[in-house]
Write a structure and sequence with these properties.
Helix content is 62%, strand content 7%. The protein is α+β, with helices and mostly antiparallel strands and 439 residues long.
Length: 439
C-alpha cells in the first residue's frame, strides 16, 4: 500500500490527482507484471491489480455520483409529475405546460445556485424533487381553478381577448394563496439555518431560496402560458370522495387512534439510531468502497485519530522515563479493539528508548540532519508536545466512541501529567454526521 496525504484542495483538483495516480498505478502494474512474467515465463499470468482509495477518493466518487443523482432525480420527477398531470387532466396543453414548468424551474434554480457558488452536497441532491413538488403544487391549484373558470365562461372562453383577461383574473385570485404556500414552505426550510452545522445551514438557505425562485418562475410561466392551456378535469375528480365520507363518519375513533399512535411513536422516536459508519455513502460493490474495505481490513484501518500529548514544559519529551511511558501507552493502544495501526515518537527509536536525555537529544539531532525529518510530524521543536497517529476501523459511531474512551484512559493512566487533545476524522467526522442526523 502506498499512502499519500493530499493538501486541502478543491474536488476538481482531487479529480486531476486521482486520474494521475490511476495512470501511474497502471504503469507500475504493467512494469511489475512484465518483470514477473519474464521471471515465470508466462506474460499473461499476472494477478497484480491496484486502485485508488481513501477519503479523497470517496469524496471524488461521491461528487461524481451526485452529478448523476441530480440528473436522475430530475428525470424521475419529470416523468412522475407529467404522468400525474395526465391522470388529472385531459388534453396535451396541460402536459406541455407542466413539463415546461418543471424543466424551467429546475434549470433556473440550479443555475442560480451554481452561479452564486453554492456547493452541491448529499443533502442538496434531492433539490430537483423539492423544486418539482413546489412547482406542481402551484400549478395544480392554479389549473384546477382555471379549469373551473373556463367551464363557467362557456363559449366566451373561445375568444382570445376574453380568455386573456380571465387568465389574469384567475392568477390574481389565487396569487395570495400561492404566495403564502411558497412563503411558508421557504420559511420552514430556512428555520433549519438556525443550526450551527454548516451543511444544514447551506441546505436550509438553498432550499428556502429555491422555493421562492420556483414561485417567481411559475408565476411568470402562468402569466405567459395560462391563456393557452385548456385543462379539462378527468371525471373522477368530480366524483364523490368516498374516503372523506368514511373518515368523517368514523372521525372520533380515527382521532383517538391517531392520538394513540402518535404517543407510541413519540416514545419510539427517543430510541432513534444516530450511529453510522463514515464510509457507507457509496453503494456496495463500488470499486472505491471495496478498496476502502480492503484497507480497513488488511492495512490498519481508515479512520484517523490524532492524539496530541502536551507535557507542559519545554524538553518534556527529552526525558527517557516519559518516552518509556509513551512506549508502553502505544503498545496498550494497539491492543484496543477497533484500533488498526498506531505510530508514535518512540517507534523511531528502533524499539529501545535511550537511557539518558543526552542520548535522546542525539537521536533527535541525527533525525534532524535528514532532508525530510520524519519526527516533525510527531514532536514539536520545543519537545513539549508529541503526536500519536492512530488508525481506527470504520465502525459505528457508538463503537468508535467506546474505543476513543478506552484509548484516552490508556494515556491518562501512563501519562497522567500530560494534557490530551483529540483530533482527526474519528472525532470530527462522527460528530458532524451525528449532529447532521439529529438536525
Amino acid at each position: 500500500m502506498i499512502a499519500i496525504e493530499p493538501k486541502n484542495v478543491e474536488t476538481h483538483e482531487l479529480q486531476v490527482l486521482r486520474d494521475e495516480l490511476e495512470s501511474k498505478i497502471k504503469t507500475i502494474i504493467a512494469s511489475v507484471s512484465a518483470q514477473a512474467g519474464s521471471q515465470s515465463g508466462d506474460q499473461n499470468n499476472s494477478k497484480i491489480s491496484g486502485t485508488v482509495s481513501g477519503l479523497p477518493a470517496i469524496q471524488i466518487r461521491l461528487a461524481e455520483r451526485l452529478q448523476t443523482e441530480v440528473g436522475d432525480f430530475f428525470a424521475l420527477s419529470l416523468i412522475i409529475f407529467v404522468l400525474m398531470f395526465c391522470a388529472f387532466y385531459r388534453g396535451y396543453t396541460t402536459v406541455v405546460f407542466a413539463a415546461t414548468g418543471l424543466v424551467a424551474c429546475n434549470t433556473v434554480v440550479i443555475g442560480v445556485l451554481a452561479k452564486i457558488g453554492v456547493p452541491f452536497t448529499v443533502l442538496l441532491s434531492t433539490l430537483p424533487v423539492i423544486v418539482s413538488i413546489a412547482f406542481v403544487s402551484l400549478a395544480v391549484h392554479t389549473l384546477y381553478l382555471w379549469s373551473d373558470r373556463l367551464k363557467e365562461a362557456g363559449f366566451q372562453a373561445e375568444v382570445l381577448s376574453f380568455r386573456f383577461k380571465l387568465a389574469l383574473k384567475t392568477i390574481r385570485e389565487i396569487f395570495l394563496a400561492n404566495l403564502l404556500g411558497s412563503a411558508t414552505t421557504a420559511i420552514g426550510f430556512a428555520m433549519l439555518a438556525t443550526t450551527k452545522i454548516p451543511a444544514i445551514q447551506t441546505f436550509a438557505l438553498a432550499v428556502g431560496a429555491s422555493v421562492l425562485i420556483t414561485f417567481l418562475v411559475s408565476q411568470a410561466l402562468l402569466l405567459a402560458g395560462l391563456v393557452w392551456v385548456r385543462p379539462v378535469q378527468r371525471s373522477w375528480m368530480s366524483a364523490r370522495a368516498w374516503w372523506t365520507v368514511t373518515v368523517t363518519r368514523y372521525a372520533l375513533p380515527i382521532l383517538i387512534g391517531v392520538g394513540a399512535l402518535s404517543v407510541v411513536m413519540a416514545g419510539a422516536a427517543t430510541k432513534m439510531n444516530f450511529s453510522a459508519r463514515l464510509f457507507d455513502d457509496l453503494p456496495k460493490g463500488d470499486e472505491v468502497r471495496n478498496a476502502m474495505v480492503k484497507v480497513d481490513t488488511d492495512f490498519g484501518g481508515t479512520v484517523s485519530l490524532d492524539l496530541v500529548l502536551d507535557g507542559g514544559a519545554e524538553g518534556f519529551w527529552n526525558e527517557p522515563k516519559n518516552l518509556e511511558a509513551l512506549k508502553i501507552a502505544l503498545n496498550e493502544t494497539r491492543k484496543q479493539t477497533g484500533v488498526g495501526a498506531v505510530i508514535g515518537l518512540t517507534d523511531f527509536f528502533n524499539g529501545k528508548v535511550p537511557n539518558s536525555a543526552q542520548g535522546v537529544g542525539e537521536a533527535y539531532f541525527l533525525y534532524s540532519m535528514s532532508p525530510s525529518n520524519p519526527l516533525r510530524s510527531y514532536v514539536d521543536n520545543e519537545h513539549r508536545r508529541v503526536r500519536v497517529a492512530v488508525r481506527m476501523k470504520d465502525e459505528l459511531s457508538d463503537g468508535v466512541d467506546v474505543t476513543r474512551e478506552k484509548v484516552r484512559s490508556v494515556y491518562q493512566k501512563y501519562l497522567p501529567n500530560t494534557v490530551l487533545t483529540e483530533t482527526g476524522l474519528a472525532v470530527s467526522g462522527h460528530t458532524v454526521n451525528r449532529e447532521v442526523a439529529k438536525g
